[in-house]
Amino acid sequence: MVRVGDSTMETWRGDITTLEVDAIVNAANSSLLGGGGVDGAIHAAAGPELLEECRALGGCPTGEARITAGYQLPAAHVIHTVGPIYPRLSPERAAELLASCYTNSLDLAAEQGLASVAFSAISTGVYGYPLGEATAIAVATTRAWLEAHPEQRMRVVFCCFDARTLAAYEAELAHAAIN
Ligand code: APR
User: Is 26 helix (H, G, I), strand (E, B) or coil?
Assistant: First the structure.
């Protein structure tokens, strides 16, 4: 765990749909109408009402985030963010959009007065973002946001579905802790 003021960042390995936090962050697509990967798992666990609420949102541009209820999930809310599709963009633009996924999700959580947020590893699956680079952006952007919002006592969990992702996040947090 890394402390940033009164906030913390930590890793956890497992299925994000089991986490009892204020919000889990879904790696959605711009339609917000579900899909595979973590998006499919979250919709399957939340139940059909989640899709109904998402349908009413009318989609979400890449880099932005939307919040819904969690329905049958243990998490009270789901923040849906749309990560960059890496192969379609310049590395610089992809990095910009991925960072905005994290800042926009944290802004939404703060607006709703949430105290605990668990992120999935946005864009590192189907969307092909190289894991090391995406992890560095996720941790650096989150840390910068926490430093810029000292009034927010936020518990940020980086939810890693596999050992490779967990190792990447643990290495990045260890780096963040000593710098
Ligand atoms: N809990 C936590 N993490 C998970 C889970 C789960 N149940 N299932 C998958 N993951 C992890 C993947 O292992 C990966 O590390 O989520 C990360 C993101 O991978 P994807 O789900 O493929 O998301 P992304 O790369 O952002 O692609 C988004 O995929 O599922 C579709 O509808 C989605 O079109 C969108 C695209």
Answer: strand
